[in-house]
Structure formats: structure tokens, C-alpha cells
From TrEMBL:
GO terms for molecular function: phosphorelay sensor kinase activity. This is Virulence sensor protein BvgS. It comes from Rubrivivax albus. Signal peptide: none annotated. Residues 725-942 form the Histidine kinase domain.
Length: 1092
């Protein structure tokens, strides 16, 4: 089975499906009766033959036939043979067997009646009537009457035998006449019944014939074929009505499943549905199938109904088929026509829009593009009038209404409209409309031509013409139009008049020779020759002659062209007077430039200035024409610089590079090169311009400056890093200071313990003050160097002070602090403050990172000059990788340390810096889970004498009654200083700012109790300490009124500024009582007032 799509074509003339598989035969009811009669005759003959042969066999087997019995047996056997032969002759000779067979049977019955002596009482005589009836019914009178007549003759012969006494008496005792009458009556009735039966059969046949004729007529009207399928869906009957002649299949179709035939065509989906309906015993309605003949394809619509026998037994299908090939051909032709029209509609370049009542029904791709839609579905259903510019919609609507009243095919004249696309772009179009008739009713087909580009081109052309006209009139260059065949001027612009001095009216119609425009005849000859040979000329330098006879340099270009079938020459000539002047100026600049300048083209020097030649050591003019490689140290260097800057130059970019170049004497020097293509838009055309500067000396200076800058930055970094580190370490004494102060404030604390806390607070505060003082001294550092003190101090006392300071803190954390001091420590020489700072950092870290156990501080002398300090703890320990980073700036064990304990990780790095400055070293020994031991080995030689005690305290009597003015804007600082001074017997006056200080000094002098000393804060609002000092120095000398700078800003620069402002001394905050008393004792001893 194939699908319809596999078919070849559709034609009218070749044979159809049915004519390909059937042959013409008679098909009426009479013929079917003949076939039935023939079958019944054969059955009848076979039964007769069987009876005769059987009777003959009985006689032979049981009667031992001799004499007349043997004759009877032979006669029966012969009659059976004749009947058997008649049975086989029925299909070929349908009438004769119905006569011969029954006659043979009658003869055999007669022979038996005579031979066996039965006469009219023979039992077989009853079969004579049966044979007469069957022969009459099946064969009609032509067969029935001879058989009936033979029976009557047989009865007559037997009666004659009885009358002659050949047979015995009748066994039944009945009269012979009665028996004969009965036998004759039976034959007569049998013949009559057979005749009646034959008549009824013919009548029924006529009725069936008429019914079949009506069926055939209906079949010819309603269908072209009739078919039947058996229960297995095999074709058992197929007829085609053609010219009123019924035909029956006689070919390959009968007995086959239709869709298995090679010529049967059906769509797979249709076949699946057909098979499903057949399997479900559903009726079939207009199933489309086709048959592929030798040269044609025929299409049919098949309908059918299932057939059911008695008891609802399924017996197959029957139905009809209509040949719809002409219809399919018409549909295909229509589809092809529609496809051609649709292809034309789609492919035509002009936009087409089909619309009705203003709504778009269809459009081709050109219209979709014109109206600015993305695809056709967006456009369908939209309003065609919405696309028109609002000013044109009313006119477009009137034209559409007019088209609706016109007959199909009529059109409107072309009109111009403006359309606005979806994106807002305005288009200029020409449009017409045609009334058309579609399957959905009357519509309008609008045809558009996009004139936007044409009108834009016309506008551009008009603008171009106006622009050219304007350029021709206003161009600063000379523009002339000359007739090529005559050489006469057709047009000249105003620049021609301005430059040559010739008025236009005197030039038009004359030649250049007539007015003498060429200053040099040779220039004209070169110009004419090039125009004649090449048809154009480009940038030819010539000289024109003004009307007054003076020459003017010009750069001429020209070209031939044709217009109005005439040849013309257009000339553009530029006045080069200014250009020539510019060239001379440029040459002067190049000649006198201090930088080397060169032009290369195709890797060859084309032009250089004197500075370039002098820089490279080449004689004047000798480097031009040399290859570019002559100034490079080697070919490899030349290729390398080409690889670096070649791609950039090719892009038109400017390149700056520093490199070594070679002089002519093979010496080299460092230079800075700037390179760029002469024409950046076309780098390969004009060559490359090079600007070269010898930077050997400049580079030396830059390197010296860089070294100085690096040194300064190193010093700054060192200073900044150290200050940052030390600022972190300020927290260590501050921590002790705050902790002890909080402990001292504990309610109910024993006085002795509180006194101890206060003493430790003082120690921590002093340590903090010492660190701050040293931080301020860092202003004197230039390269990361810190000046250390070297003084005698008691190391045992320092260790004891540390123990006192941290024992309480350790106890507060549940730890034990132990001190192990070896022998020979005592007085040593060194910087006690830095030693304390290192040990304080170690102890603070140990207490911070140890949760339980103890912290041990030990010190022992290694030799006469070195002491080893160790701070060990029972903390978590440190792994080897972390130990390597511990003494680096900003480093802690890990990020969790910072999160848990805080800090910046600078403490240990400060310890390393301090130890290094002392000439010592630091380190750590640690195991994870077993604690850590931080050590420091410092050079602390034994002091030669007793340690220097604190500066001798001033005589208390020396400050008693001294009158001191304290100037400070900070209330807390004022309160502390006043209390400290009054504690030693000083009379204190107070001033909160500069103006109060000046007023206080004046008031004290007026009262006759002048101040012996002024302690001046520097940073105050209104008037600063410097300004107050300057005013006081105008009144009093340094001896008559000493002024001491008392400020927290204690940088070296500030000390120097204070002394320069006229102050006698500098005392940085914070200060203790001893420092204040010593400063007052030093400066408050006033001399005679007159000495001031």
C-alpha cells in the first residue's frame, strides 16, 4: 500500500480502478437462476446416478443375478452411468442432461419392473413421478414433458404385460385399473407441480431482475462502484457500472485485502482510522482512497455498512465508492492557481494590503516592512487608516469609501500619502486602490510604492546642486569649466577673478592662451599633455600670470568629463602663496629646532633636520637616502623596535619609546622618540615622522631624584611604621593604668592595697609618659633610627616594679606571676625605658593568651655585657609556621586572635626593633599545647658606679610663696596642675584663654603682686600661646617674666617654635609634682625687677 502523495499524476482518460480489475459478464437475476438451476441439476444427476449404481450393486451382491435379474442389474448400472455423465455435462450443456438423465432412470425403472416381474406394482414406479416433477421444475416443458411421457408409456407397457399375463397377480388385491390410474395420476400431478414450480421460479426471477435493475440504476446514479468484503476483510465482490453494463471482478482484486494491493493508495492517518472503524464494525462514510493505474491516478470516496447474518453473526462489509477524480483534479488546479497567485502576491516587490471596512485582511512581506511591523500576524486585523499620517487619513478614508461602491476590477488614480511606521518614522508613498471580490466578500486591494528614498534622493540632489553651486561660487580655490574641443572658458568662479584679476565677463568664451593665464609655456604644455594622455591631472605645481603680469604659484588638479554630449575639462587650482610661505617657515623651524626631526618612508630617510644629523654624528645631508637601520645598534634591535611600535603606527597612533640609538661612530646614547604616521588615517601612504631627544643627562638626573625620593620615602615609611607600631603599644601601659585605677576605686578596699594600686598607677603612668615622649622624639628620625639612652639603673628594682605592676592583673585573671632573677643583675647601663617596654609587651601578651596556670618572668646574666630575659607561660602554644611571622609588623597568630583578643599585631615587631637598636635580639620557643617562651638578649653591661638616682629634688623652700600664672583652656588639666602646684606651696593664678592671661598679668602688676612665672598652653581658642607670649615679650623681658610652654603637643618642632616665640623653657604634659616643682624652682627666682 502506498500513500496518495506517492502517486504520479491525475488524468481523465486512463482506465479506472474497477476497469483494471474486472471483466464484462451478464449480471441479471436470470443468469443467477441459470447458475442455481445448473447446480441443482448436477446434484440431481449425482443423486440419480448414486441410486442406480447402489441398486445395481445390491442386486449383484445379494440376489446372485442371473437371467432377468442380471439384466436389471446391468440396466441400473447403465442408467447410473448415464446420469453420472449427465452431471458432468451440466456446465457445458445445461438443458440436455435434464432430459437424458431422467429418461435413463425411467428406462432403468421399467427394466427392473419387467425383469423382476413386478409390473405396475414395482416400488420404483413412484420415482418416475419424482423424475417428471424435477425435470419439469428444473428444465421446463422441454425436459419435463419427455420424462412424463416416458413414464406414461412405461405404465402402458406394464399394463399390457399384465393383460398378457406376463406378470403375476397384484399382491394387494387391488384392481389393475385403480393401480394404473393412481400411477398415471401421480405422474400427471408431479408434472403439473413441476410446471407450477417452474412458473413461480420464473416469476420470482423477473421480480428479482426488476429489483436488480432498480438497484443498478440507483448505483449508477449514486455511486460508481459496489463492493463487498468477507469477515476477514478480503474483497469478494466488486462491480463497476459503466454505460449501464454491470461488470464483475475477474482480476487480482478479489480475494485480497484492499490496502495490501500495490496500487491501493491511502493517507496513513486515514488508513489507521479506516482499519479502526472496520475493526469496531462501524459504518464508513466518504473515506478518501486512490488507485494508481499504469498512467493515471484515480480518487474515490468509499462508504459502507457492516453486514450481519442470523443471530447477529458478522458477515463482512458492503458498500459503494464514488469516483471523485474530476473533483480532485479541479481542486488541485484551484490550489495550484491559488498558490501561483499567492506566490505572486508574496513575491511582488510592491507593498500590497487587502482590507475591508478599514481592517487589514492580508498583506505581503513588502507591506509588512513598509508599515513597520515585525511580522504579518501583528498586522492582520489592524486598521489600515491608522498607518496614515493624521493629515492624510480623511482623504484616504474617502478613497476607501469610494472603492466600496465600485465594481470589482475598477481602480482609483494614484495619489501621494504619508505613512507613519510603528517606530514613528514618516514615509512618502504613492498609493492606488482596486476593488476586488474575495471568497469572503468584496474588499479593497491597496497598492503602494515607497517614494521616501526617491524623494530623499531628489532632495539630496537638490541640496547637492545648491551646495555645489555655493561651493563653486564661494570656494577659495580657482574653479574653471572649459570646453575641451575649443579650449574656451564656459564658467569661472569669483576666486578666479580675485586671484588673476580678470573679470568673468572678459574671460567667458576666450581661451587661456588669449588672456595669457599661463606664466610659463612649459607648464601649459605639461598640463595639456597629461590631460590628453591620462584624462586627468592631480596636484601639478604651476604658475599663473595675474592680469598685472605678476606670477602666482598654483597647485592644479583637473579631470575630463562629458555632459550634454560634449567634453569638458574642470580645473581646480589652489593659490599656494601662503603654502609656500608656510613651507619656508617650516623649513626655518626645522633648521633651528633643538630636537632631532626626521621623515622616513619605506624604511628610508627622506628628510632630517640639522639637529638630527648632529645628534647622530652624520655630516649635513649625508643621512638622507640611508636605510632606517643605520641608526640602530643592531639588526635585532631594529626588528625588535619594529615589532613593538609597528602595529601602533599602522593604526595611526602616536608612539613614545625610550631606547638606545647608534651614532655614526658606533657609540650609543639613550634617547626618547616620538613617532607618528604623517597621515594617521592612511598610515602606509605618507611615511613616518620621528622626533628624537637625547635624554642621557636627563635620565641621570631622574635616577638621582629617584634615589633621593626612595630614601625619603623609606625614612617616611620607617617613621610612619614605627609610630603606628608604637601607637598600638600605648595600650599596654594604658591597660595597666585603667585596670589599677578601677581596682583602686573598689569600695571597702584596704588602705595598704589601695596605696599599692596607686603607686602602681603612678609607675604605669610614668611608663606611658616615657613612651609618649619617645614617640615624639621620633620627629628627629630621618631614616628609621631612634636615639637610645645609656644610663645606669637598677635592674632588680625594674624587675620588682614589673612584678608589682602585673601580679595584681595576673591574679585578676586567675593566674600566678613568678619572678626569677639570677645573681649579678643589680646596677646596669642601658635604656631602662626600652627594657621595660619589651618586658611589658611580653608580660601583657602572656597574660592575655594564657587561660590558666602561671606566667614566669626570669632574668639571668649571660656575661659581663649581656642579660637574657624570658617570659614563659602555660598558654596554648604556637605552631612553627606562625612563629616565623610573629615578629613581623601587623602580625598575630591568626585572625581568630584578633577577633578574640584584639590588637594590631605590632607589639612584638616593636620589641624586635628596640632590641635591634640596642644591639640585642629577640625570639620565641613554643610547642602547641605546651605554652610559649619569649626571650630577649640585650646588652646591659654592669654599671661602673652606683646607679644615677633621680634628679635631686628642688628645695621646697625655694618655691614657697612663688606667684605663678597657669594658662590652660582645659578644665581638667587646669585642675590637676593647680592642685600639684598648690601642694608644693605655690600661689596659682588661673587664665582660661589668652586674653584672660594678658589681663591677669596687667592686674597683678597693678596690684603690686606681679607673677614670678607664667606657664603657657600653646593651643587655645581666640589667642594662641604664641600670640600671648609675643604680646608679653613686648612688655617684659625673658628674665623679668619667665614663660614656660606647658602643652601636650610636645614635638621637637613645637619645642623649637615655642623657644623661638620667646618662651624660656618647654615642659610637655603629662607632668608630676616633682617636675613642676623643679621647673618652678628653676625659673621662679626673680632677679631685681629693674633688670627685666
Amino acid at each position: 500500500m502506498r500513500t496518495v502523495d506517492d502517486a504520479v499524476d491525475v488524468r481523465d482518460d486512463p482506465p479506472s480502478l474497477l476497469t483494471a480489475v474486472v471483466k464484462p459478464v451478464r449480471g441479471d437475476a436470470a443468469k443467477r437462476l441459470d447458475r442455481l438451476t445448473a447446480r441443482l441439476t448436477r446434484v440431481y444427476m449425482f443423486a440419480t446416478a448414486a441410486a442406480m449404481i447402489f441398486f445395481s450393486a445390491v442386486l449383484w451382491l445379494f440376489s446372485q443375478p442371473v437371467g432377468s435379474v442380471g439384466v436389471v442389474a446391468v440396466a441400473c448400472l447403465i442408467a447410473g452411468g448415464i446420469a453420472l455423465a449427465a452431471a458432468f455435462a451440466v456446465p457445458r450443456v445445461p438443458v440436455l442432461p435434464l432430459t437424458v438423465g431422467p429418461l435413463a432412470a425411467v428406462v432403468a425403472i421399467g427394466v427392473a419392473a419387467v425383469g423382476l416381474g413386478w409390473g405396475v406394482t414395482a416400488p420404483g414406479l413412484g420415482f418416475v413421478a419424482l423424475h417428471a416433477a424435477l425435470a419439469m421444475a428444473l428444465g421446463g416443458p422441454r425436459s419435463g414433458l419427455p420424462v412424463a411421457g416416458a413414464g406414461v408409456l412405461l405404465i402402458g407397457a406394464l399394463v399390457l404385460g399384465h393383460l398378457q399375463g406376463r406378470f403375476g397377480s397384484l399382491g394387494s388385491g387391488q384392481p389393475l385399473a385403480l393401480v394404473v390410474t393412481v400411477q398415471l395420476l401421480l405422474i400427471t400431478l408431479a408434472a403439473s407441480g413441476g410446471h407450477v414450480a417452474a412458473h413461480l421460479i420464473r416469476r420470482f426471477t423477473r421480480v428479482a431482475d426488476e429489483r436488480e435493475q432498480r438497484f443498478s440504476s440507483l448505483l449508477r446514479i449514486s455511486a460508481d462502484a459496489y463492493w463487498e468484503l468477507d469477515p476477514t476483510m478480503r474483497l469478494v465482490d466488486l462491480r463497476l457500472e459503466r454505460s449501464g453494463e454491470p461488470v464483475r471482478s475477474g482480476g487480482e482484486a478479489l480475494g485480497a485485502v484492499p490496502w495490501e494491493l500495490p496500487h491501493f493508495l491511502c493517507d496513513p492517518d486515514v488508513l489507521d482510522s479506516l482499519q479502526a472503524d472496520l475493526g469496531a464494525r462501524q459504518p464508513l462514510r466518504d473515506v478518501p482512497v486512490a488507485w494508481q493505474g499504469r498512467r493515471s491516478l484515480r480518487h474515490f470516496l468509499v462508504s459502507g455498512e457492516p453486514r450481519f447474518g442470523p443471530g447477529g453473526v458478522f458477515q463482512g462489509y458492503w458498500g459503494v465508492a464514488r469516483d471523485v477524480t474530476p473533483t480532485m483534479q479541479a481542486q488541485h488546479a484551484l490550489l495550484r492557481t491559488e498558490a501561483r497567485y499567492h506566490d505572486l502576491f508574496v513575491s511582488i516587490p510592491n507593498p500590497l494590503v487587502l482590507h475591508r471596512d478599514g481592517r487589514i485582511l492580508d498583506a505581503n512581506p513588502a507591506a509588512v516592512t513598509l508599515f513597520g511591523y515585525d511580522d504579518l500576524p501583528q498586522m492582520i486585523g489592524g486598521s489600515v487608516l491608522e498607518a496614515y499620517d493624521p493629515g492624510d487619513r480623511e482623504r484616504a478614508l474617502r478613497r476607501a469609501q469610494q472603492l466600496q461602491t465600485m465594481a470589482p476590477g475598477e481602480a482609483l488614480p494614484v495619489a501621494e500619502f504619508r505613512l507613519r511606521q510603528e517606530d514613528g518614522r514618516l514615509l512618502q508613498v504613492r498609493a492606488t486602490g482596486v476593488a476586488v471580490d474575495t471568497e469572503r466578500g468584496a474588499a479593497v486591494l491597496s497598492i503602494y510604492v515607497d517614494d521616501t528614498e526617491r524623494q530623499a534622493a531628489e532632495d539630496v540632489l537638490r541640496r547637492s546642486e545648491a551646495l555645489l553651486s555655493h561651493l563653486f561660487a564661494s570656494s577659495p580655490d580657482v574653479i574653471t569649466l572649459t570646453e575641451l574641443d575649443t579650449g574656451r572658458y564656459a564658467m569661472v568662479n569669483r576666486s578666479f577673478e580675485r586671484i588673476t584679476g580678470w573679470p568673468t565677463e572678459e574671460v567667458i568664451g576666450r581661451t587661456s592662451t588669449e588672456i595669457g593665464i599661463w606664466f610659463d609655456v612649459a607648464d601649459r604644455q605639461r598640463f595639456v599633455h597629461q590631460v590628453q594622455t591620462l584624462g586627468r591631472i592631480q596636484d601639478m605645481p604651476v604658475r599663473f600670470c595675474r592680469r598685472d603680469g605678476t606670477p602666482v604659484p598654483m597647485l592644479v588638479s583637473g579631470a575630463r568629463f562629458q555632459a550634454d554630449r560634449r567634453d569638458y575639462l574642470v580645473i581646480n587650482a589652489r593659490d599656494m602663496t601662503d603654502v609656500e610661505q608656510h613651507r619656508l617657515e617650516t623649513e626655518a623651524i626645522l633648521e633651528n629646532a633643538s630636537l632631532g626631526i626626521a621623515l622616513t618612508r619605506e624604511e628610508t630617510f627622506q628628510m632630517v633636520n640639522p639637529a638630527f644629523e648632529a645628534m647622530l654624528g652624520w655630516p649635513d645631508g649625508s643621512i638622507v637616502g640611508q636605510p632606517g637601520t643605520c641608526v640602530w645598534p643592531s639588526q635585532d634591535a631594529y626588528r625588535e623596535i619594529g615589532r613593538q611600535i609597528g602595529p601602533l603606527l599602522a593604526k595611526g597612533e602616536q608612539v613614545e619609546v625610550e631606547c638606545e640609538v647608534r651614532r655614526r661612530d658606533d657609540s650609543t646614547f639613550l634617547c626618547r622618540m616620538l613617532a607618528r604616521a604623517v597621515d594617521p588615517s592612511h598610515p602606509s601612504r605618507g611615511g613616518t615622522i620621528w622626533v628624537v631627544e637625547d635624554i642621557t643627562e636627563k635620565r641621570r638626573m631622574d635616577e638621582a631624584l629617584a634615589r633621593a625620593r626612595d630614601a625619603a620615602e623609606a625614612a617616611s615609611r620607617a617613621k610612619s611604621a614605627f609610630l603606628a607600631n608604637t601607637s598600638h603599644e600605648l595600650r599596654t601601659p594604658l591597660n595597666g593604668l585603667l585596670g589599677l585605677a578601677q581596682l583602686a576605686r573598689t569600695p571597702g578596699l584596704e588602705e595598704a592595697r589601695r596605696s599599692g594600686y596607686l603607686e602602681q598607677i603612678v609607675d604605669s603612668a610614668r611608663s606611658l609618659a616615657d613612651i609618649v615622649s619617645d614617640i615624639l622624639d621620633l620627629s628627629k628620625i630621618e631614616a628609621g633610627r631612634l636615639t637610645l639612652e645609656s644610663a645606669a639603673f637598677d635592674l632588680d628594682l625594674l624587675l620588682g616594679s614589673l612584678q608589682r605592676g602585673y601580679t595584681t592583673l595576673a591574679a585578676a585573671s586567675g593566674l600566678v606571676l613568678r619572678l626569677e632573677a639570677g645573681p649579678g643583675l643589680g646596677p646596669v647601663s642601658g635604656d631602662a625605658l626600652r627594657v621595660r617596654q619589651i618586658l611589658t609587651n611580653y608580660l601583657g601578651n602572656a597574660l592575655k593568651f594564657t587561660d590558666h596556670g602561671e606566667v614566669r618572668l626570669s632574668a639571668r646574666r649571660l656575661d659581663a655585657d649581656r642579660v637574657r630575659f624570658e617570659v614563659s607561660d602555660t598558654g596554648p602554644g604556637i605552631d612553627e609556621a606562625t612563629q616565623a611571622r610573629l615578629f613581623q609588623p601587623f602580625t598575630q597568630a591568626d585572625q581568630s586572635t584578633t577577633r578574640r583578643y584584639g590588637g594590631t599585631g605590632l607589639g612584638l615587631s616593636i620589641c624586635r626593633e628596640l632590641a635591634s637598636l640596642m644591639g640585642g635580639s629577640v625570639g620565641v620557643h613554643s610547642e602547641v599545647g605546651r605554652g610559649s617562651c619569649f626571650w630577649a638578649e640585650l646588652p646591659l653591661p654592669v654599671a661602673a658606679g652606683a646607679p644615677v638616682a633621680a634628679a635631686a629634688e628642688a628645695d621646697p623652700a625655694a618655691v614657697l610663696g612663688a606667684h605663678v600664672l597657669l594658662v590652660d583652656d582645659n578644665e581638667v588639666n587646669m585642675m590637676v596642675a593647680v592642685a600639684q602646684l598648690e601642694q608644693v606651696g605655690v600661689r596659682v593664678g588661673q587664665a582660661a584663654d589668652g586674653r584672660q592671661a594678658l589681663d591677669a598679668v596687667t592686674a597683678a602688676e597693678a596690684a603690686g603682686d606681679p607673677y614670678d612665672l607664667v606657664m603657657m598652653d600653646l593651643q587655645m581658642p581666640d589667642l594662641s600661646g604664641y600670640e600671648v607670649t609675643a604680646e608679653l615679650r613686648r612688655r617684659h623681658g625673658p628674665q623679668s617674666l619667665p614663660i614656660i610652654a606647658h602643652t601636650a603637643a610636645a614635638l621637637v618642632s613645637e619645642r623649637e617654635a615655642a623657644l623661638a616665640a620667646g618662651m624660656n623653657d618647654f615642659l610637655p604634659k603629662p607632668t608630676d609634682v616633682a617636675q613642676l616643682r623643679a621647673m618652678v624652682a628653676r625659673w621662679a627666682r626673680r632677679t631685681d625687677p629693674g633688670t627685666g
